[in-house]
């Protein structure tokens, strides 16, 4: 009897997931696809540095015909030489600014029909929006988002025309984990990278009939010349929040990206935090793998809880940072001080600007503090 019961209970536990798996295997779209790169034309923008350069190296060593495009001809020459040195293969180089459609069009025409287009160029300057110049916001959106439109518009006609005799094509866009969740200091950057997602989701529907497959890559902080530059003037909070995801090397990101592109994945995470982030933000994105779809369905609830915990932690850091910034520096030097409300310390050590000496303050009512003697403050926390 017990054995029979056990049999039915395990059946009850196993059957629903199996049924779900079966159902998902029937409905996930688009259908799975493999995209080879050997002997095929891989065109990489921003291929002279960082992740793009690592992608060019890897694609060349896997036997692809590689073209790279970026602005500086010097950096392009340098990249070409480095790839020649390590793989013995010649890559084609094109100097153009992705913001200049005509220049991009000329490069694409010269390069010939593309099989795999990797739109990787990107600029990033982290700063609070209030501090950031509008010109810089425009620059980030222009290069990262409009530049990607220019590139795709220029390459698409040729890619479509040559599809029948050349097998499946791919357009991949280099987003960022900051394109899956908004991060302090990245208003412009996150907006540009979230924009790529909308572009990619819509474009995949438009191109599925042409055997062209779209991918979005979501790297975390990656060791590149671009990151070194970014770190020189990054708000501390941006670094704190972004460190929730581990940093990677450009080669590792390139490897994950290329694997993802070849297996036709729409969303390509790069590290373990990235996998969680991708499942948590799956939304209405296309999914080719019924196994991944299964994981997305089953993990949705628990990952929402994890996501809320991350937000709780991040807002905690922001609050703490504001307290540190605003507590300990007085606004005025009289008896009463106006201190922002989020500064909830009952007692503060502040600089009296008029005398240049430190003063001890104690909270009186609401946001007002008055100076007191050290003894009067002794009993209070955080004095
Ligand atoms: N490094 C990181 O932490 C992360 C990066 N990413 C994304 O990965 C991509 C590559 O980043 P990364 O390798 O770090 O960047 P790098 O700054 O190291 O390289 C950027 C590349 O893009 C080119 N480029 C920049 N602006 C233009 C332009 N207007 N027209 C044509 N080419 C241009 C650069 O060449 P040139 O200046 O000569 O034009 C260079 O080849 C970006 O899209 C970035 O947003 C995503 C997540 C994390
Ligand atoms: C529910 C589970 C959540 C999992 C963890 C989430 C971690 C999010 C971290 C985001 C990091 C963003 C880095 C952006 C890097 C970048 O693009 C810049 N270096 C500019 O190039």
Question: How would you describe this structure in keywords?
Answer:
383 residues; alpha/beta; Rossmann fold; 2 domains; 7-stranded parallel sheet; 4-stranded antiparallel sheet; 13 helices; 51% helix; flat; disordered C terminus; binds NADPH dihydro-nicotinamide-adenine-dinucleotide phosphate; binds 3-Dehydrosphinganine
Which small-molecule species are bound to the chains here?
NADPH dihydro-nicotinamide-adenine-dinucleotide phosphate, 3-Dehydrosphinganine
State the end-to-end CA separation: 70 Å
Count of DSSP-assigned helices: 13
Q: Detail the poorly predicted runs.
A: 328-342, 373-383
State the helicity in percent bands.
40-55%
What string, H for helix and E for strand, traces the elements in order? Answer: HEHEHEHEHHEHEEHHEHEHHEEEEH
> Nearest-angstrom radius of gyration?
27 Å
* Proportion of residues in β-strands: 15-25%
Shape: flat
Provide the structure class: alpha/beta
Strand order of the largest sheet: 3-2-1-4-5-6-9
In the CATH hierarchy, the architecture of the largest domain is 3-Layer(aba) Sandwich
Largest pleated sheet: 7 strands, parallel
Please state the average pLDDT score: 90
- Identify the CATH class of the largest domain: Alpha Beta
Look at the structure and name the CATH superfamily of the largest domain: NAD(P)-binding Rossmann-like Domain
Domain module tally: 2
- Total beta strand runs: 13
